[in-house]
Specification:
Layout lengths: L1 H17 L3 E6 L4 E5 L1 H7 L1 E3 L4 E3 L2 H11 L7 E10 L4 E13 L2 E10 L10 H13 L4 E6 L4 E4 L1 H6 L18 H15 L4 E8 L5 E12 L5 E10 L1 H15 L5 H17 L4 E5 L4 E4 L1 H6 L4 H4 L4 H4 L2 H17 L3 E8 L5 E12 L6 E9 L1 H20 L11 H18 L3 E8 L2 H8 L1 H18 L6 E6 L2 E6 L4 H18 L14 E8 L8 H16 L4 E4 L5 E2 H4 L2
Parallel strand pairs: 21-22
Antiparallel strand pairs: 1-2, 1-7, 3-4, 5-6, 6-7, 8-9, 8-12, 10-11, 11-12, 13-14, 13-17, 15-16, 16-17, 18-20, 18-21, 19-20, 22-23
Helix pairs in contact: 4-13, 15-16, 16-17
Amino acid sequence: MWALARRKVRAQRAAMVKSPAAQLMIDLEAKQVIFANPRVCELLQLANNGKHWQFFDSAHLEQLLELLKPHQSSASIEGVHWLVNFPQQTRVLLLYASLTAHNGREVWFINAYENAQGYSYLNRIEQEQKLFANVLNSIPEFIYFKDANERLLGCNQAWAGFHGLKPGELAGKKLSDFLTRNELERSQTYDNQVLAGEPCQHTEWFSAPDSRQILLQNNVYPLKNQQDEVTGVLNVSYDVTKWHELNRKLEHENQNRISSEKELGRQNNLIRTVFNSTPDPLGFIDDKGNFVGGNEPFAKMFGFTSDELLGKHLTEVLSEEQLEQHQLQNRQILEDGKPIRYEELVYLDDGHQIWYEVIKGPYFDDVSGERGIIFITRDVTERKATEQQLADAIMQLQELSFIDSLTQVANRRSFDEKLLQLWLTHRREGVELSLLLLDIDCFKQYNDNYGHQQGDEALRQVAKLISRSVKRGSDLVARYGGEEFAILLPNTGCEGAKQIAETVLRNMKEAEIPHEFSDVSDFVSVSIGVASVIPQQGVDYGELVRVADLQLYRAKHQGKARYCSAGDSAIEDTKTAP
Protein backbone atom coordinates (compact mmCIF):
# COMPACT_ATOMS: atom_id res chain seq x y z
CA MET A 1 0.00 0.00 0.00
CA TRP A 2 2.82 2.35 0.85
CA ALA A 3 4.51 1.60 -2.49
CA LEU A 4 1.24 2.13 -4.36
CA ALA A 5 0.74 5.48 -2.59
CA ARG A 6 4.30 6.56 -3.46
CA ARG A 7 3.77 5.65 -7.13
CA LYS A 8 0.49 7.60 -7.13
CA VAL A 9 2.24 10.69 -5.71
CA ARG A 10 5.06 10.40 -8.26
CA ALA A 11 2.58 10.04 -11.11
CA GLN A 12 0.59 13.03 -9.87
CA ARG A 13 3.70 15.21 -9.64
CA ALA A 14 4.91 14.07 -13.08
CA ALA A 15 1.54 15.13 -14.53
CA MET A 16 1.78 18.49 -12.77
CA VAL A 17 5.28 19.08 -14.20
CA LYS A 18 4.01 18.53 -17.74
CA SER A 19 0.85 20.55 -17.27
CA PRO A 20 0.75 23.86 -19.16
CA ALA A 21 -1.24 25.32 -16.26
CA ALA A 22 0.49 26.77 -13.21
CA GLN A 23 -0.01 24.23 -10.39
CA LEU A 24 1.19 23.99 -6.79
CA MET A 25 0.40 22.12 -3.56
CA ILE A 26 0.38 23.82 -0.14
CA ASP A 27 0.53 21.96 3.19
CA LEU A 28 -2.09 23.81 5.24
CA GLU A 29 -0.66 22.81 8.65
CA ALA A 30 3.02 23.44 7.82
CA LYS A 31 2.16 26.47 5.67
CA GLN A 32 4.69 25.34 3.08
CA VAL A 33 4.65 24.75 -0.68
CA ILE A 34 5.34 21.03 -0.99
CA PHE A 35 5.28 20.95 -4.78
CA ALA A 36 5.23 23.48 -7.64
CA ASN A 37 5.49 22.89 -11.38
CA PRO A 38 7.75 25.01 -13.67
CA ARG A 39 4.93 27.21 -14.93
CA VAL A 40 3.94 28.42 -11.44
CA CYS A 41 7.65 28.89 -10.56
CA GLU A 42 7.93 31.18 -13.58
CA LEU A 43 4.76 33.17 -12.77
CA LEU A 44 5.30 33.53 -8.99
CA GLN A 45 9.14 33.39 -8.82
CA LEU A 46 9.34 30.19 -6.68
CA ALA A 47 12.57 28.31 -6.07
CA ASN A 48 13.24 24.82 -4.63
CA ASN A 49 15.55 24.74 -1.59
CA GLY A 50 15.81 20.92 -1.64
CA LYS A 51 12.97 20.25 0.80
CA HIS A 52 10.17 22.47 -0.42
CA TRP A 53 9.49 25.47 -2.64
CA GLN A 54 9.88 29.04 -1.40
CA PHE A 55 8.40 32.28 -2.71
CA PHE A 56 10.84 34.99 -3.73
CA ASP A 57 8.87 37.22 -1.33
CA SER A 58 7.56 35.41 1.77
CA ALA A 59 4.71 37.92 1.97
CA HIS A 60 3.24 36.32 -1.18
CA LEU A 61 2.72 33.00 0.67
CA GLU A 62 1.04 34.80 3.58
CA GLN A 63 -1.14 36.68 1.13
CA LEU A 64 -2.15 33.45 -0.64
CA LEU A 65 -2.98 31.68 2.66
CA GLU A 66 -5.20 34.62 3.68
CA LEU A 67 -6.96 34.35 0.32
CA LEU A 68 -7.56 30.60 0.84
CA LYS A 69 -8.66 30.86 4.49
CA PRO A 70 -12.33 31.90 3.93
CA HIS A 71 -12.80 28.91 1.59
CA GLN A 72 -11.60 26.14 3.97
CA SER A 73 -15.16 25.25 4.99
CA SER A 74 -16.23 24.68 1.36
CA ALA A 75 -12.83 23.05 0.54
CA SER A 76 -12.83 24.57 -2.95
CA ILE A 77 -12.22 27.78 -4.89
CA GLU A 78 -13.49 28.63 -8.36
CA GLY A 79 -12.34 31.70 -10.27
CA VAL A 80 -10.90 33.88 -7.48
CA HIS A 81 -8.56 36.67 -8.60
CA TRP A 82 -5.19 37.14 -6.87
CA LEU A 83 -3.21 40.36 -7.42
CA VAL A 84 0.53 39.68 -6.95
CA ASN A 85 2.93 42.65 -6.84
CA PHE A 86 6.55 42.19 -7.95
CA PRO A 87 9.28 44.88 -8.03
CA GLN A 88 9.04 45.33 -11.80
CA GLN A 89 5.44 44.31 -12.54
CA THR A 90 2.06 43.20 -11.22
CA ARG A 91 0.42 39.90 -12.17
CA VAL A 92 -3.28 39.01 -11.92
CA LEU A 93 -3.91 35.27 -11.47
CA LEU A 94 -7.23 33.40 -11.65
CA LEU A 95 -7.27 30.60 -9.00
CA TYR A 96 -9.10 27.26 -8.97
CA ALA A 97 -8.32 25.08 -5.93
CA SER A 98 -9.51 22.15 -3.85
CA LEU A 99 -8.64 21.09 -0.28
CA THR A 100 -7.75 17.38 -0.17
CA ALA A 101 -6.02 14.85 2.10
CA HIS A 102 -2.44 14.00 1.15
CA ASN A 103 -0.27 11.65 3.30
CA GLY A 104 -2.67 12.19 6.17
CA ARG A 105 -2.44 16.02 5.96
CA GLU A 106 -4.74 18.72 4.54
CA VAL A 107 -3.32 20.04 1.27
CA TRP A 108 -4.55 22.75 -1.06
CA PHE A 109 -4.18 21.70 -4.72
CA ILE A 110 -4.17 24.94 -6.76
CA ASN A 111 -4.42 25.72 -10.49
CA ALA A 112 -3.49 29.31 -11.47
CA TYR A 113 -4.01 31.05 -14.80
CA GLU A 114 -2.58 34.41 -15.80
CA ASN A 115 -5.37 36.92 -16.55
CA ALA A 116 -3.46 40.06 -17.66
CA GLN A 117 -5.19 42.70 -19.76
CA GLY A 118 -3.55 43.54 -23.08
CA TYR A 119 -2.72 46.96 -24.39
CA SER A 120 -4.20 48.55 -27.50
CA TYR A 121 -1.58 50.01 -29.77
CA LEU A 122 -2.05 52.39 -32.72
CA ASN A 123 -1.15 51.14 -36.18
CA ARG A 124 1.00 54.01 -37.42
CA ILE A 125 3.39 55.58 -34.95
CA GLU A 126 4.67 58.08 -37.49
CA GLN A 127 1.27 59.77 -37.74
CA GLU A 128 0.96 59.89 -33.95
CA GLN A 129 4.39 61.48 -33.66
CA LYS A 130 3.34 64.15 -36.16
CA LEU A 131 0.10 64.69 -34.24
CA PHE A 132 2.07 65.07 -31.01
CA ALA A 133 4.42 67.59 -32.65
CA ASN A 134 1.48 69.55 -34.13
CA VAL A 135 -0.23 69.68 -30.74
CA LEU A 136 2.93 71.01 -29.09
CA ASN A 137 3.66 73.57 -31.80
CA SER A 138 0.09 74.92 -31.83
CA ILE A 139 0.40 75.96 -28.18
CA PRO A 140 1.57 79.58 -27.75
CA GLU A 141 3.00 79.00 -24.25
CA PHE A 142 6.61 77.88 -23.78
CA ILE A 143 6.76 74.08 -23.29
CA TYR A 144 9.73 71.78 -22.83
CA PHE A 145 10.33 68.45 -21.16
CA LYS A 146 13.55 66.89 -19.94
CA ASP A 147 14.81 63.82 -18.12
CA ALA A 148 16.16 63.62 -14.57
CA ASN A 149 19.70 64.37 -15.85
CA GLU A 150 18.73 67.82 -17.20
CA ARG A 151 18.81 66.53 -20.80
CA LEU A 152 16.12 68.06 -23.04
CA LEU A 153 13.79 65.44 -24.55
CA GLY A 154 11.72 67.88 -26.60
CA CYS A 155 10.00 71.25 -26.77
CA ASN A 156 7.47 73.18 -28.83
CA GLN A 157 8.03 75.82 -31.50
CA ALA A 158 7.36 78.69 -29.09
CA TRP A 159 10.13 77.64 -26.66
CA ALA A 160 12.61 76.87 -29.46
CA GLY A 161 11.81 80.12 -31.29
CA PHE A 162 12.37 82.06 -28.06
CA HIS A 163 15.98 80.81 -28.21
CA GLY A 164 16.27 81.42 -31.97
CA LEU A 165 16.26 77.71 -32.89
CA LYS A 166 13.95 74.95 -34.15
CA PRO A 167 12.53 72.20 -31.89
CA GLY A 168 14.64 69.49 -33.52
CA GLU A 169 17.85 71.43 -32.81
CA LEU A 170 17.26 71.40 -29.03
CA ALA A 171 16.71 67.68 -28.38
CA GLY A 172 19.60 66.18 -26.41
CA LYS A 173 20.90 69.52 -25.17
CA LYS A 174 20.82 70.63 -21.55
CA LEU A 175 19.22 73.66 -19.88
CA SER A 176 22.71 74.85 -18.99
CA ASP A 177 23.16 75.61 -22.72
CA PHE A 178 20.43 78.27 -22.52
CA LEU A 179 20.10 79.58 -18.96
CA THR A 180 22.43 81.66 -16.81
CA ARG A 181 23.94 80.01 -13.75
CA ASN A 182 21.52 81.77 -11.36
CA GLU A 183 18.53 80.89 -13.53
CA LEU A 184 19.67 77.27 -13.73
CA GLU A 185 20.11 77.01 -9.95
CA ARG A 186 16.61 78.38 -9.34
CA SER A 187 15.14 76.01 -11.92
CA GLN A 188 16.90 73.00 -10.38
CA THR A 189 15.51 73.86 -6.95
CA TYR A 190 11.95 73.51 -8.22
CA ASP A 191 12.79 70.54 -10.46
CA ASN A 192 14.05 68.57 -7.44
CA GLN A 193 10.65 69.04 -5.82
CA VAL A 194 8.90 67.84 -8.97
CA LEU A 195 11.22 64.83 -9.35
CA ALA A 196 10.08 63.84 -5.87
CA GLY A 197 6.56 63.59 -7.33
CA GLU A 198 5.07 66.99 -6.40
CA PRO A 199 4.06 69.45 -9.17
CA CYS A 200 4.77 73.10 -8.45
CA GLN A 201 4.22 76.59 -9.81
CA HIS A 202 6.62 79.51 -9.57
CA THR A 203 7.28 82.84 -11.25
CA GLU A 204 10.82 83.87 -12.23
CA TRP A 205 12.59 86.53 -14.25
CA PHE A 206 14.61 85.22 -17.22
CA SER A 207 17.03 86.78 -19.67
CA ALA A 208 15.87 86.58 -23.29
CA PRO A 209 18.46 86.13 -26.09
CA ASP A 210 17.86 89.78 -27.09
CA SER A 211 18.82 90.87 -23.52
CA ARG A 212 15.20 91.61 -22.52
CA GLN A 213 14.10 90.59 -19.03
CA ILE A 214 10.82 88.67 -19.11
CA LEU A 215 8.70 87.30 -16.28
CA LEU A 216 7.62 83.68 -16.74
CA GLN A 217 5.01 81.84 -14.72
CA ASN A 218 6.26 78.25 -14.73
CA ASN A 219 3.97 75.29 -14.12
CA VAL A 220 6.14 72.22 -13.56
CA TYR A 221 4.79 68.68 -13.60
CA PRO A 222 6.44 65.26 -13.10
CA LEU A 223 6.72 62.95 -16.11
CA LYS A 224 6.02 59.33 -15.19
CA ASN A 225 6.55 56.02 -16.95
CA GLN A 226 4.17 53.06 -17.06
CA GLN A 227 5.38 51.94 -13.61
CA ASP A 228 4.32 55.34 -12.21
CA GLU A 229 7.98 56.25 -11.63
CA VAL A 230 9.04 59.87 -12.10
CA THR A 231 11.48 59.98 -15.02
CA GLY A 232 11.58 63.65 -15.91
CA VAL A 233 9.99 67.10 -15.79
CA LEU A 234 7.40 68.87 -17.97
CA ASN A 235 7.51 72.68 -17.87
CA VAL A 236 4.70 74.90 -19.23
CA SER A 237 5.56 78.61 -19.01
CA TYR A 238 3.49 81.72 -19.62
CA ASP A 239 4.92 85.15 -20.37
CA VAL A 240 3.28 87.36 -17.72
CA THR A 241 5.64 90.30 -18.15
CA LYS A 242 2.93 92.62 -19.45
CA TRP A 243 0.55 91.66 -16.66
CA HIS A 244 3.28 92.21 -14.13
CA GLU A 245 4.13 95.59 -15.60
CA LEU A 246 0.45 96.55 -15.66
CA ASN A 247 -0.08 95.45 -12.06
CA ARG A 248 3.06 97.27 -10.97
CA LYS A 249 1.93 100.36 -12.79
CA LEU A 250 -1.53 100.24 -11.23
CA GLU A 251 -0.03 99.75 -7.77
CA HIS A 252 2.39 102.61 -8.32
CA GLU A 253 -0.42 104.85 -9.49
CA ASN A 254 -2.60 103.94 -6.50
CA GLN A 255 0.23 104.66 -4.06
CA ASN A 256 1.38 107.91 -5.69
CA ARG A 257 -1.79 109.64 -6.69
CA ILE A 258 -1.16 113.17 -7.80
CA SER A 259 -3.14 116.10 -6.48
CA SER A 260 -4.01 117.47 -9.90
CA GLU A 261 -7.62 116.77 -10.90
CA LYS A 262 -6.55 116.74 -14.50
CA GLU A 263 -3.90 114.12 -13.82
CA LEU A 264 -6.39 112.21 -11.67
CA GLY A 265 -8.87 112.24 -14.54
CA ARG A 266 -6.19 111.07 -16.96
CA GLN A 267 -5.28 108.21 -14.67
CA ASN A 268 -8.94 107.26 -14.27
CA ASN A 269 -9.37 107.25 -18.04
CA LEU A 270 -6.29 105.08 -18.40
CA ILE A 271 -7.59 102.56 -15.86
CA ARG A 272 -11.02 102.62 -17.45
CA THR A 273 -9.46 101.97 -20.87
CA VAL A 274 -7.51 99.01 -19.48
CA PHE A 275 -10.64 97.66 -17.81
CA ASN A 276 -12.76 97.96 -20.95
CA SER A 277 -10.15 96.70 -23.42
CA THR A 278 -8.91 93.59 -21.62
CA PRO A 279 -10.88 90.38 -22.19
CA ASP A 280 -9.92 89.14 -18.73
CA PRO A 281 -12.19 89.91 -15.76
CA LEU A 282 -10.99 92.74 -13.46
CA GLY A 283 -12.91 94.12 -10.48
CA PHE A 284 -12.90 95.70 -7.00
CA ILE A 285 -14.77 94.94 -3.76
CA ASP A 286 -14.46 97.21 -0.73
CA ASP A 287 -13.75 95.97 2.79
CA LYS A 288 -17.51 95.85 3.53
CA GLY A 289 -18.18 93.43 0.67
CA ASN A 290 -19.68 95.90 -1.82
CA PHE A 291 -18.79 95.79 -5.55
CA VAL A 292 -17.24 99.18 -6.33
CA GLY A 293 -15.97 98.58 -9.87
CA GLY A 294 -15.31 96.05 -12.58
CA ASN A 295 -15.37 95.46 -16.32
CA GLU A 296 -17.99 93.54 -18.29
CA PRO A 297 -16.16 90.14 -18.22
CA PHE A 298 -15.90 90.48 -14.42
CA ALA A 299 -19.63 91.22 -14.07
CA LYS A 300 -20.50 88.33 -16.41
CA MET A 301 -18.82 85.91 -13.97
CA PHE A 302 -21.63 86.73 -11.52
CA GLY A 303 -24.44 86.86 -14.11
CA PHE A 304 -24.77 90.68 -14.31
CA THR A 305 -23.71 93.64 -16.43
CA SER A 306 -21.12 96.01 -14.94
CA ASP A 307 -23.81 98.64 -14.22
CA GLU A 308 -26.06 96.07 -12.51
CA LEU A 309 -23.22 94.72 -10.39
CA LEU A 310 -22.03 98.12 -9.15
CA GLY A 311 -23.12 98.70 -5.54
CA LYS A 312 -24.36 95.17 -4.92
CA HIS A 313 -23.19 93.24 -1.87
CA LEU A 314 -21.56 89.80 -1.94
CA THR A 315 -24.62 88.35 -0.18
CA GLU A 316 -26.78 89.33 -3.19
CA VAL A 317 -24.78 87.51 -5.86
CA LEU A 318 -23.13 84.49 -4.18
CA SER A 319 -24.46 81.24 -2.75
CA GLU A 320 -23.94 80.52 0.95
CA GLU A 321 -21.02 78.20 0.23
CA GLN A 322 -19.35 80.69 -2.15
CA LEU A 323 -20.01 83.58 0.25
CA GLU A 324 -18.30 81.84 3.17
CA GLN A 325 -15.24 81.02 1.04
CA HIS A 326 -14.84 84.58 -0.30
CA GLN A 327 -15.34 86.20 3.11
CA LEU A 328 -12.62 84.02 4.64
CA GLN A 329 -10.26 84.88 1.77
CA ASN A 330 -11.02 88.61 1.96
CA ARG A 331 -10.43 88.76 5.72
CA GLN A 332 -7.10 86.97 5.30
CA ILE A 333 -5.98 89.35 2.51
CA LEU A 334 -6.95 92.48 4.43
CA GLU A 335 -5.27 91.24 7.62
CA ASP A 336 -2.05 89.93 6.04
CA GLY A 337 -1.81 92.50 3.27
CA LYS A 338 -0.67 89.77 0.85
CA PRO A 339 -2.30 88.60 -2.40
CA ILE A 340 -3.46 85.03 -2.99
CA ARG A 341 -3.71 83.04 -6.22
CA TYR A 342 -6.06 80.14 -7.03
CA GLU A 343 -8.04 78.56 -9.88
CA GLU A 344 -11.82 78.42 -9.94
CA LEU A 345 -14.35 76.63 -12.18
CA VAL A 346 -17.36 78.85 -12.97
CA TYR A 347 -20.67 77.61 -14.45
CA LEU A 348 -22.40 80.25 -16.59
CA ASP A 349 -26.17 80.56 -16.93
CA ASP A 350 -26.04 79.05 -20.44
CA GLY A 351 -24.40 75.90 -19.07
CA HIS A 352 -20.85 76.64 -20.20
CA GLN A 353 -17.93 75.94 -17.86
CA ILE A 354 -15.00 78.36 -17.63
CA TRP A 355 -11.75 77.92 -15.69
CA TYR A 356 -10.44 81.16 -14.17
CA GLU A 357 -7.07 81.84 -12.63
CA VAL A 358 -7.79 84.38 -9.89
CA ILE A 359 -5.36 86.74 -8.16
CA LYS A 360 -6.91 88.59 -5.22
CA GLY A 361 -4.88 91.26 -3.50
CA PRO A 362 -5.43 94.23 -1.17
CA TYR A 363 -5.81 97.83 -2.32
CA PHE A 364 -5.81 101.08 -0.31
CA ASP A 365 -6.88 104.57 -1.41
CA ASP A 366 -4.69 106.97 0.59
CA VAL A 367 -6.96 109.91 -0.34
CA SER A 368 -10.32 108.51 0.75
CA GLY A 369 -8.91 105.86 3.08
CA GLU A 370 -10.95 103.20 1.32
CA ARG A 371 -9.69 99.60 1.62
CA GLY A 372 -10.75 96.56 -0.32
CA ILE A 373 -9.92 93.67 -2.61
CA ILE A 374 -8.80 93.81 -6.25
CA PHE A 375 -9.66 90.85 -8.50
CA ILE A 376 -7.32 90.13 -11.42
CA THR A 377 -8.82 87.16 -13.23
CA ARG A 378 -7.72 85.26 -16.32
CA ASP A 379 -9.67 82.79 -18.46
CA VAL A 380 -7.46 79.67 -18.60
CA THR A 381 -10.04 77.26 -20.06
CA GLU A 382 -8.01 76.79 -23.26
CA ARG A 383 -4.82 76.28 -21.25
CA LYS A 384 -6.53 73.59 -19.17
CA ALA A 385 -7.70 71.83 -22.33
CA THR A 386 -4.23 72.18 -23.85
CA GLU A 387 -2.56 70.69 -20.79
CA GLN A 388 -4.92 67.71 -20.92
CA GLN A 389 -4.33 67.32 -24.66
CA LEU A 390 -0.58 67.44 -24.09
CA ALA A 391 -0.77 64.84 -21.31
CA ASP A 392 -2.84 62.53 -23.56
CA ALA A 393 -0.35 62.94 -26.42
CA ILE A 394 2.59 62.18 -24.14
CA MET A 395 0.85 59.06 -22.84
CA GLN A 396 0.17 57.87 -26.41
CA LEU A 397 3.80 58.49 -27.38
CA GLN A 398 5.07 56.48 -24.39
CA GLU A 399 2.78 53.56 -25.26
CA LEU A 400 3.93 53.56 -28.89
CA SER A 401 7.67 53.82 -28.16
CA PHE A 402 8.04 50.02 -27.70
CA ILE A 403 6.13 48.84 -30.83
CA ASP A 404 7.42 48.60 -34.42
CA SER A 405 5.00 50.70 -36.45
CA LEU A 406 5.18 48.58 -39.64
CA THR A 407 4.82 45.03 -38.27
CA GLN A 408 3.08 45.77 -34.92
CA VAL A 409 5.45 43.48 -33.03
CA ALA A 410 7.96 44.64 -30.40
CA ASN A 411 10.73 46.90 -31.67
CA ARG A 412 14.49 46.67 -31.09
CA ARG A 413 14.34 48.84 -27.96
CA SER A 414 11.70 46.60 -26.41
CA PHE A 415 13.74 43.50 -27.36
CA ASP A 416 16.94 44.84 -25.76
CA GLU A 417 15.18 45.71 -22.48
CA LYS A 418 13.38 42.34 -22.35
CA LEU A 419 16.59 40.40 -23.08
CA LEU A 420 18.46 42.17 -20.28
CA GLN A 421 15.62 41.53 -17.83
CA LEU A 422 15.36 37.83 -18.75
CA TRP A 423 19.15 37.41 -18.65
CA LEU A 424 19.27 38.62 -15.03
CA THR A 425 16.29 36.52 -13.84
CA HIS A 426 17.49 33.36 -15.62
CA ARG A 427 20.99 33.81 -14.23
CA ARG A 428 19.54 34.08 -10.73
CA GLU A 429 17.27 31.05 -11.18
CA GLY A 430 19.78 28.96 -13.15
CA VAL A 431 17.39 28.08 -16.00
CA GLU A 432 17.86 28.07 -19.78
CA LEU A 433 17.06 31.02 -22.03
CA SER A 434 16.70 30.58 -25.81
CA LEU A 435 16.91 33.05 -28.71
CA LEU A 436 15.94 32.62 -32.37
CA LEU A 437 17.27 35.08 -34.96
CA LEU A 438 15.33 34.94 -38.26
CA ASP A 439 16.20 36.54 -41.61
CA ILE A 440 14.00 36.60 -44.73
CA ASP A 441 15.84 34.90 -47.58
CA CYS A 442 16.58 36.90 -50.74
CA PHE A 443 14.60 39.90 -49.47
CA LYS A 444 16.60 42.40 -51.53
CA GLN A 445 15.50 40.63 -54.73
CA TYR A 446 11.92 40.74 -53.41
CA ASN A 447 12.07 44.51 -52.85
CA ASP A 448 13.85 45.17 -56.14
CA ASN A 449 11.28 43.26 -58.20
CA TYR A 450 8.00 43.63 -56.28
CA GLY A 451 8.57 47.15 -54.92
CA HIS A 452 9.01 48.47 -51.42
CA GLN A 453 5.27 48.71 -50.69
CA GLN A 454 4.86 45.00 -51.45
CA GLY A 455 8.04 44.42 -49.43
CA ASP A 456 6.45 46.14 -46.43
CA GLU A 457 3.37 43.92 -46.83
CA ALA A 458 5.62 40.84 -46.89
CA LEU A 459 7.28 41.98 -43.66
CA ARG A 460 3.85 42.32 -42.04
CA GLN A 461 2.80 38.83 -43.18
CA VAL A 462 6.04 37.26 -41.96
CA ALA A 463 5.65 39.01 -38.58
CA LYS A 464 2.13 37.56 -38.23
CA LEU A 465 3.34 34.06 -39.13
CA ILE A 466 6.18 34.25 -36.59
CA SER A 467 3.83 35.58 -33.90
CA ARG A 468 1.42 32.72 -34.64
CA SER A 469 4.24 30.24 -34.11
CA VAL A 470 4.65 31.05 -30.39
CA LYS A 471 1.97 30.25 -27.85
CA ARG A 472 3.08 31.54 -24.45
CA GLY A 473 2.36 35.03 -23.27
CA SER A 474 5.89 35.27 -21.86
CA ASP A 475 7.52 34.70 -25.29
CA LEU A 476 8.55 37.84 -27.20
CA VAL A 477 8.50 38.35 -30.98
CA ALA A 478 10.41 41.47 -32.10
CA ARG A 479 11.60 43.11 -35.29
CA TYR A 480 15.36 43.04 -34.83
CA GLY A 481 16.11 45.28 -37.81
CA GLY A 482 15.32 45.46 -41.54
CA GLU A 483 14.12 41.99 -42.60
CA GLU A 484 15.44 40.36 -39.40
CA PHE A 485 13.21 39.19 -36.54
CA ALA A 486 13.93 37.70 -33.12
CA ILE A 487 12.06 35.36 -30.76
CA LEU A 488 12.92 35.30 -27.04
CA LEU A 489 11.89 32.09 -25.26
CA PRO A 490 12.12 32.31 -21.45
CA ASN A 491 12.72 29.13 -19.46
CA THR A 492 13.20 27.15 -22.70
CA GLY A 493 15.97 24.71 -23.65
CA CYS A 494 17.44 23.88 -27.04
CA GLU A 495 14.83 21.23 -27.92
CA GLY A 496 11.96 23.57 -27.18
CA ALA A 497 13.62 26.31 -29.26
CA LYS A 498 14.06 23.88 -32.17
CA GLN A 499 10.36 23.04 -32.03
CA ILE A 500 9.52 26.73 -32.38
CA ALA A 501 11.97 27.02 -35.31
CA GLU A 502 10.30 24.02 -37.01
CA THR A 503 6.87 25.57 -36.45
CA VAL A 504 8.02 28.86 -38.04
CA LEU A 505 9.43 27.03 -41.08
CA ARG A 506 6.23 24.99 -41.42
CA ASN A 507 4.00 28.08 -41.18
CA MET A 508 6.13 29.92 -43.75
CA LYS A 509 5.92 26.98 -46.14
CA GLU A 510 2.15 26.61 -45.75
CA ALA A 511 1.58 30.37 -46.25
CA GLU A 512 3.08 30.21 -49.79
CA ILE A 513 3.89 33.91 -50.12
CA PRO A 514 5.00 34.16 -53.80
CA HIS A 515 8.70 34.97 -54.47
CA GLU A 516 9.60 33.93 -57.99
CA PHE A 517 12.92 35.78 -57.76
CA SER A 518 14.23 33.72 -54.80
CA ASP A 519 17.15 31.37 -55.40
CA VAL A 520 15.73 29.05 -52.69
CA SER A 521 12.12 28.33 -53.70
CA ASP A 522 9.11 29.93 -55.38
CA PHE A 523 7.87 31.27 -52.05
CA VAL A 524 9.16 33.56 -49.30
CA SER A 525 11.29 31.60 -46.81
CA VAL A 526 13.37 32.37 -43.72
CA SER A 527 16.66 31.16 -42.27
CA ILE A 528 16.92 30.74 -38.50
CA GLY A 529 19.75 30.70 -35.98
CA VAL A 530 18.98 29.01 -32.65
CA ALA A 531 20.90 29.57 -29.40
CA SER A 532 20.19 28.29 -25.86
CA VAL A 533 22.20 29.00 -22.74
CA ILE A 534 22.02 29.07 -18.95
CA PRO A 535 23.25 32.61 -18.13
CA GLN A 536 26.38 32.66 -15.97
CA GLN A 537 27.89 35.30 -13.72
CA GLY A 538 30.42 37.42 -15.61
CA VAL A 539 28.97 36.59 -19.07
CA ASP A 540 27.18 39.36 -20.96
CA TYR A 541 23.83 38.70 -22.62
CA GLY A 542 25.43 39.71 -25.90
CA GLU A 543 26.97 36.22 -25.97
CA LEU A 544 23.50 34.73 -26.59
CA VAL A 545 22.97 37.12 -29.52
CA ARG A 546 26.43 36.31 -30.90
CA VAL A 547 25.79 32.53 -30.88
CA ALA A 548 22.34 32.91 -32.48
CA ASP A 549 23.80 35.18 -35.17
CA LEU A 550 26.55 32.63 -35.89
CA GLN A 551 23.95 29.87 -36.33
CA LEU A 552 21.93 32.15 -38.62
CA TYR A 553 25.05 32.62 -40.73
CA ARG A 554 25.46 28.81 -40.90
CA ALA A 555 21.84 28.38 -42.02
CA LYS A 556 22.34 31.00 -44.75
CA HIS A 557 25.65 29.46 -45.84
CA GLN A 558 24.20 25.93 -46.02
CA GLY A 559 21.34 26.77 -48.34
CA LYS A 560 18.80 29.00 -46.53
CA ALA A 561 15.17 28.03 -45.67
CA ARG A 562 16.33 26.08 -42.61
CA TYR A 563 17.57 26.49 -39.08
CA CYS A 564 20.87 25.75 -37.39
CA SER A 565 21.69 25.43 -33.72
CA ALA A 566 24.97 24.91 -31.84
CA GLY A 567 26.08 21.28 -32.11
CA ASP A 568 23.63 20.37 -34.90
CA SER A 569 23.92 20.28 -38.66
CA ALA A 570 21.63 22.46 -40.75
CA ILE A 571 18.06 21.16 -40.83
CA GLU A 572 16.09 21.92 -43.95
CA ASP A 573 12.50 23.03 -43.86
CA THR A 574 11.50 20.06 -45.98
CA LYS A 575 12.71 17.80 -43.21
CA THR A 576 11.15 19.64 -40.29
CA ALA A 577 7.91 20.92 -41.79
CA PRO A 578 5.74 18.13 -43.20
